[in-house]
Description:
alpha/beta; Aspartate Aminotransferase, domain 1; 7-stranded mixed beta sheet; 39% helix; binds pyridoxal-5'-phosphate
Amino acid sequence: MEAYLDNGATTKVDPRVLKAMMPYFSTAYGNASSLHKPGRDAKKAMDLAREAIAKKLNAEAGEIIFTSGGTESDNLAIRGAAYANRGKGKHIITTKIEHPAVLNTCRSLANDGFDITFLDVDDEGLVDISALEKAIKKDTILVSVIHGNNEVGTIQDIACIGALCRQRDVLFHTDAVQSFGKVPIDVKRMNIDLLSISGHKFNGPKGIGALYVRSGVKLTPLAYGGHHEFGLRPGTENIPGIVGLAKAAELIGTREIKQMAKLRDTLIKGLLSIHESYLNGPGMKNSGRRLCNNANVSFKGVEGEALLMYLDTKGVRVSTGSACSSRDEGPSHVLSALNVDPECIMGSLRFTLSKFTTRQEIDYTVKATKETVAHLRKVSGLRSA
Length: 385
Ligand SMILES: Cc1ncc(COP(=O)(O)O)c(C=O)c1O
């Protein structure tokens, strides 16, 4: 039996997505800038995909910029807004629980002379809106707050943050890489100026993403070249990826979200039946604030990495912290920001579901985790299960 529960790291490409992409590798491979028929066909496919992504966000097609993924979208949003607005101010606000794509972009801007505030969050990972309000200064140009956290699944109240930013005339960017397709987003109603998404987190291909840029928001490009993507992102467009991104977005909706949330709750209940196990992020009573596919649990007295490796031998694929940083040294910056006890940080695992996750996988994962935690506690002699 295998249970792939590392969908926060990446997902399997939906076969219907792959099918939609195939012609753009083999027969309809034109360059979207070419004037001949294959070029026009590529451009048509790209236009339709742009419209589909825009529709999902309640945006206009001309506000969607295709990129290589979440990291590039975050960089373009933050660096692009910082440099385009530096005449207005040099202060940027973000949080302590951002993905490294945002954290390290902000740190690089600090080295370039920008002033960055990293906001605290509460024990469930939520930003305090009044603290954000107090942090906004005269020279604040941008607020960047992650929508759905990649480690603990906390969903921020981005409508409230957006309203505050709009009222204070500050740009608002949200990293929606983990939430897109799993939480309904309406950029107009939520007053969002910039929003990042990535295809491989919702059963689309890797290496493709998008940045929503509200009409009228000025960005300085990261790279220079041709006039692709409204002059914001030069380079020949990745048509198969763009088609796959739009198809994947079309194939995830309310039904899939409900199904994942139900299985997530079964998983959490099963894992919490293990002695001295604790849920990180929003509590069960606040499960509406947790991504429908996330469960982050600490097992006291167990080394998370050892547990991960044992589970791997049983076919259960999970991660410690966020996958992108799980090879890095040091405890999770997200769990530390949530004031999780250091021993619990070391014993934490992230389980992330997809629309393809089955009840059998969940039951098998709970059983394998129970057995492995008991075994590891026994051999370490620290605690009995
Ligand atoms: C919240 C968040 N932002 C950004 C990224 C980076 O996305 P990509 O892998 O498409 O560069 C990830 C990837 O794990 C993520 O979880």
